[in-house]
Write a structure and sequence with these properties.
- The chain is of the alpha/beta class.
- The protein has 2 domains: about 180 residues, P-loop containing nucleotide triphosphate hydrolases (Rossmann fold, 3-Layer(aba) Sandwich), CATH 3.40.50.300; about 70 residues, no CATH class.
- The chain is about 35% helix and about 25% strand.
- The protein has a 6-stranded mixed sheet, sandwiched between helices. A 4-stranded antiparallel sheet has the order 2-1-4-5, covered by helices on one side.
- α3 packs parallel to α5 and α5 packs parallel to α6.
- The mean pLDDT is about 90.
Length: about 260
């Protein structure tokens, strides 16, 4: 479903601020894979995600989604293949619009415009059933303005909106990092349920090693613009944080792990 081949990305080339963020990264995600991505600051996690999303072009290499080469497609043209949830709960929703209006926008994204106004009863019933998955009581607040929701409620709604049209690829960019631990756990549980229910191919960046181990069927750890570890199956299920750190040290020859990664 996702094939990244030998991609490189350098920022500010030829200047004193030159930074090579990706160094020949290759990664393949099969249909239904739920891959968690972890690594220290500057490891290349967000650069990889943004390269896949088309936020900026790669210097070399190729990216395919669902068998379609999107390497040279701009971000807005890749959006038809991708659902994305950002770290900031304020992004991805319209604060002055109702919950059901936000969901209607997400459900109709990419469809032709018509003269029909409003939301039908069938649509409203469908949105109510979808919101029940989140287990946050939002199914009884369809007409509430999104700006009145808490950060966790808003992030969970954004997640639901990003998956309403069942994207070929779901990108989660530290989507629980700005939430308190209890709310983050709820949003992660909702993420797991939605991904499993719709069999979504998912790439999730997290700064929390325990979350990276618990969620998904595969874990990759990045270091200095490369994939240092790729663990899946039974090896991942049995993994502990201590073992992950030990494997990281063996793979990189370094015992470095930044505070954010360890404290997460």
């Amino acid at each position: 479903m996702l094939e990244v081949k030998n991609i490189y990305k350098t920022f500010n080339p030829g200047t004193v601020n030159e930074k090579t963020a990706l160094r020949g990264v290759s990664l393949t995600l099969n249909d239904g894979d739920f891959v968690t991505v972890i690594g220290g600051n500057g490891a290349g996690k967000s650069t990889l995600l943004n390269a896949v999303a088309g936020v900026w072009p790669v210097d070399s290499g190729s990216i395919s989604i669902g068998g379609v080469d999107v390497t040279h497609l701009p971000e807005h043209k890749r959006a038809r293949h991708i659902g994305r949830v950002f770290q900031d709960p304020m992004m991805g929703t319209a604060a002055t619009m109702q919950i059901e209006e936000n969901m209607a926008l997400a459900a109709r994204r990419g469809r032709g415009r018509t003269l029909r106004r409003g939301i039908t009863r069938d649509e409203r019933d469908h949105y109510r059933e979808m919101l029940k998955i989140l287990d946050l009581g939002l199914e009884d607040r369809l007409t509430s303005k999104v700006g009145l929701l808490s950060g966790g409620q808003r992030q969970a709604l954004t997640l639901l909106m990003a998956t309403l049209r069942k994207p070929q690829l779901l990108l989660l960019d530290e989507h629980t990092a700005a939430l308190d631990p209890k709310t983050a756990a709820k949003v992660l549980d909702a993420t797991e349920r939605i991904v499993q229910k719709d069999h979504l191919t998912t790439l999730m960046i997290t700064h929390n090693m325990k979350d990276a181990i618990v969620h998904g069927n595969r874990l990759i750890m990045m270091y200095e613009g490369n994939i240092a570890l790729d663990i899946s199956g039974e090896d991942k299920k049995k993994l502990t944080v201590e073992q992950l750190l030990a494997k990281f040290g063996q793979a990189t020859g370094s015992d470095e792990a930044d505070d954010k990664l360890l404290l997460g």
